Each structure stands twice: as C-alpha cells, then as structure tokens.
Amino acid sequence: MVARYDQTTDPELLAALLQARRGTAFFARKLNELSDAELDGGSLLTGWSRRHVVAHVGYNARAIARLIEWAATGVQTPMYPSPEARNHEIDFGATLSPIALRNLFDHAAVHLNVEWRDLPADAWHHQVKTAQGRVVPAAETVWMRTREVWIHAVDLDNGATFADIPAPVLSRLLKDITGAWSSRGTDTGLIVQATGPSGANGALTFGDTGNPGATTVAGGFAAVVQWAAGRAADGVTASTAAGQAVDVPTAPAWI
Ligand code: ZN
What we know:
By secondary structure, this protein is α+β, with helices and mostly antiparallel strands. It has two domains: 11-160, Four Helix Bundle (Hemerythrin (Met), subunit A), CATH 1.20.120; 167-246, Nonspecific Lipid-transfer Protein, Chain A, CATH 3.30.1050. The chain starts with 10 loop residues before the first helix and ends in a 9-residue tail after the last strand. It is built from seven helices and seven strands, in the order ααααββααβββαββ. It has a five-stranded mixed β-sheet, covered by helices on one side. The chain binds zinc ion. The site of zinc ion has 3 residues, from α5.
C-alpha cells in the first residue's frame, strides 16, 4: 500500500521537503526553457556542458534515492560505487539523446520524491553515508538534494541567478560553506559579510573575524553566496581592515 502523502509529520522536515520540491520544479522549468540544441551549450561549470549538468542532477537524484532505500531497508547501498564511477556515469549521461536526458532528470526526480514520501516517519533518523563519507541521518538527504537543484539551475546558465534561490536556502548554504572552510582552516585571513536575506536581518558575518589582517568580502546575500559557492564574484567587494579596496579573492573550495 503506497501512500500519496508524506509519512513524516515533522514540520521542519516537511518545510525542508517543500524547498527541495520547489527547487526541483525550478530546475525543471529552466531545463524546459532550453531547446534540444541549447543543451549542447556550455554551463557555468568549467568543462561541463549543460548536458553534463542535467545528467549529474538526474544521477544525483538516483544516488540520493539509494540512500533512502538504505534508510528504509537497512541494506547498505552507497550513493556511487566510487568517485570514478560517478564521473563516468555523468560523462555517459551527457551523451544521451535530448529526450533520454530529459527523461533521466524527470524520472529520477519522481522516483526520489516517491522514496521520500513513502519513508516511514521513524526511518528518517536512520544513518546513511554520503559520497564524501559523512554519516548523516536520512533527513539530511533533503538538504543534499535542495542545494543541488537550486545551484545547478543557475549553472544551466539560461537566466537563473542566486537571487532566485529562496532566502532560507541561501542562508543555510552560506552557513554550510563557511562552516566547511572553518573546519578545514581554509578561511584564514578571510571575513565574509552578507546583508541579510531580503535585507531584513541586517548583516551576517562569518570567517576569521578575530584577525585584524583579514580581508573582508562583502555584498548582498545572493551575491556573497554565489561567490562563496565558487561561482562569479559579481556584486561583491573586498577590503582590508583599514577599508582599502582590494581584488576579490577566489573563494576556498567548498565540497
Ligand atoms: Zn552537484
């Protein structure tokens, strides 16, 4: 018996699922705006065509669905057999016909949504392992997917921008990214300052704030997250503690 509504009743998780579903719909819309010929064009990711982006987002849904099956059954099924297998799969997917590529994205997204919907409420706490080797509760897969669909919709490079990404998603992205830098110590000498989402929450500051020699990278929320995620640096400025403008540094690697 398959339910047609989410098995979880956790309001936080339901809100997170909504952001993932909205992001999936947003990616689908941007993909549908592209003609078959335009799929051959470049994306914002170096070395990747739009085809690579679509294939990756499709296979990512399949990989995350494997984690939900793991959470549901207890049978360990990794996202990918290996990083090489993941990359090979993307290269293969990029060669599919336009219709097959679009079907890959659609079917994988629907399948993942069904896996999420049917996961029993208590199984969302079950531990699974990400492709990076992090052990996380199944609930974390919702965020893993959310950031993929929203950011890669921008990477399709046909009009989506970080300003299209909802403020709560931008906010969590910036926390995640600066948190990753901090735990690796790659944020030394770097302060990141973003005006709050929608300008409502004042400025948010992250990074090496105790360092008077640090460079501050600042800008609007969407622009700062775009820069921090390793995309374009439009809309951000950099300055020394004395207020002198300097070149905007390249953001440290995130994932
Ligand atoms: Zn990705």
